[in-house]
Amino acid sequence: VGGGGGGGTNAGSGGAGGGVDYRTSYPVAPNQVIITSSGAGGAIGANAGSAGANSSITIGKSSFAATGGAGGNSYVGARTCTSARSAGGTGAFANGGRGGNGAGGTPQNGCIGESGTAISITGTSTIYGAGGGGGGYDGNGGLGGGGLGGYSSGQQDTAGTTNTGGGGGGGANAGGTGSAGGSGIVIVRYA
Questions:
Q1: How many CB atoms lie within 10 A of CB 29?
Q2: Model confidence over 134-174: pLDDT tens digits?
Q3: Can you tell me the distance from the alpha carbon of 188 to that of 36, in angstroms, rounded to the nearest whole number?
Q4: Are the beta carbons of 171 and 9 closer than 8 angstroms?
Q5: Nearest to 166 by CA among 110, 121, 127
């Protein structure tokens, strides 16, 4: 799972979730070297959040990767929940959820981040690669399977959950900073 994107500032959009690559029954020989790299979550910035980093695994001569989600941008006037949104990372199994847009005026709520993908590889169903919610402008922040969007009179934006590639929540109006994306993860399970 790639890292989630960081949320944008000031009624900013939520960061997008990381892509998901999931494989079963892949052969691994005894003493074979497996190289993994888990992508970091995207950071918050002065305006827009940064993209999450890619995660990868190499088994012998085969390499597999999932890309990080895009960072959310800051306030854009007249933006709606159906306007262009930060793109989810890509993966062979599923793409990450797009981040919810931040409010485009007042009073307006932030938009909901897209759902991620549920996988039970650890024995517990876990959502990976969900988009973060957008920040509100005199209205509620958007929900997100990643981080929650903030709003000025209440809810603080939250970071994407660590080891799930969830996007960070967008910041509230009046200078809300947004939150970092959740780190990606590589899980190897031996049966």
A1: 8
A2: 998 866 667 667 888 888 767 789 999 999 999 999 998 87
A3: 9
A4: yes
A5: 127
The label of the residue with tokens 């409010």 reads 103
Cα 99 to the center of its chain, rounded Å: 7
- 131 contacts 16 by C-beta, under 8 angstroms: yes
Q: What pLDDT sits at residue 151? A: 84
Cβ atoms within 10 Å of 119's Cβ, excluding its own:
18
pLDDT attached to residue 52:
98
Residue 138: the pLDDT is 67
Gyration radius of the chain over CA positions: 16
Gap between the Cα atoms of 157 and 119, Å rounded: 26
* Sign of the dihedral through C-alpha 151, 153, 154, 158: positive
Residues 170 and 178: beta-carbon distance below 8 Å: yes
Give the whole-number percent of the chain exceeding pLDDT 90.
73
